[in-house]
From TrEMBL:
Belongs to the asaB hydroxylase/desaturase family. InterPro entries: AsaB-like. This is Methyltransferase. It comes from Chaetomidium leptoderma. GO terms for molecular function: oxidoreductase activity.
Length: 281
């Protein structure tokens, strides 16, 4: 298996001369007539080298990216359509797997999401199978800014927030395909050590009808070093960091999906599950 491949990664672009003074935003609902849906663009950058995680000297402790094994026996793709099954079977097994892999004492899951690629993706065709499902996310991003996470602590932990803040914790994402080996729009992970956090990260408001979340979108930088897990199996979960109570976001991992292309890709549309959690040490 090759130590690297070449692919396309999508990055944010802004016209700073035009948008100066206006915070970047995107509306996740139909904008009013004459109001822009967003004030930035996502542009593909071609010829990006993406390195083989399996043969690289990359560890969760140093780079915020890791892979753990999962007992996936009996976990058929259709099982994940049952929310109760996910909550009662998958998430407890994931809890065990991740805590064992990271040497953590406990994990609190606060969100999870299925993604099912429609055959026409990234083009959307109304009425197509899985056309209304969550699709792979193609732009390089981090799911939260530090300020966004701070605003969520009271929501998740209420009066227990102060006790949480007294412990060592991390916020992590956990991703896996429902079937493997995954050769259709796999995940790519950007080594945090190759990111200029002052220049490369742009805070963006993702605005929904009842809430706005602040995330980081990523500008292209030729120093970026990307990794992926070739042929990831349904029995493997990728774990990547978003925040560390001791280190802040120095190990937060920008990530996105990318197209392997016709030569190495698969005709089977990807289905996956991602989980977001606090991990405690």
């Amino acid at each position: 298996m090759a130590d690297e491949i070449t692919a396309t990664i999508r990055y944010v672009q802004r016209d700073e001369s035009k948008d100066v003074g206006e915070k970047p935003y995107i509306l996740h609902y139909a904008a009013p007539d004459g109001f822009p849906q967003n004030n930035f663009t996502i542009k593909p950058v071609h010829g990006i080298k993406i390195h083989n995680f399996r043969t690289a000297d990359i560890t969760y402790g140093k780079h915020g990216i890791g892979v753990a094994s999962l007992n996936s026996n009996g976990m058929k793709p259709e099982c994940f359509d049952d929310d109760d099954w996910v909550e009662s079977v998958y998430l407890p097994e994931l809890h065990r797997s991740v805590c064992d892999a990271l040497g953590a004492k406990d994990m609190t899951i606060f969100d999870w999401m299925l993604r099912k690629r429609a055959p026409s993706f990234p083009v959307r065709q109304p009425g197509q199978e899985n056309g209304e499902a969550h699709q792979p996310s193609l732009s390089a991003h981090i799911d939260y800014t530090t300020a966004e996470l701070a605003s969520r602590l009271p929501r998740y932990f209420g009066e227990g927030k102060d006790e949480i803040l007294s412990r060592r914790y991390q916020v992590i994402n956990i991703w896996k395909p429902l079937t493997g080996p995954c050769r259709d729009f796999p995940m790519a992970y950007l080594d945090p050590a190759s990111v200029d956090r002052e220049k490369d990260l742009i805070a963006v408001d993702e605005v929904f009808p009842t809430v706005a979340n602040e995330v980081f979108q990523v500008r292209w930088n030729p120093n970026h070093k990307w990794y992926y897990v070739p042929d990831q199996l349904e029995s493997e979960v990728a774990i990547f960091n978003a925040f560390d109570s001791d280190k802040g976001q120095s190990l937060a991992v920008p990530h996105c999906s990318f197209d392997l292309g016709d030569a190495t890709g698969s005709a089977v549309p990807r289905q996956s599950i991602e989980v977001r959690a606090f991990i405690f040490y």
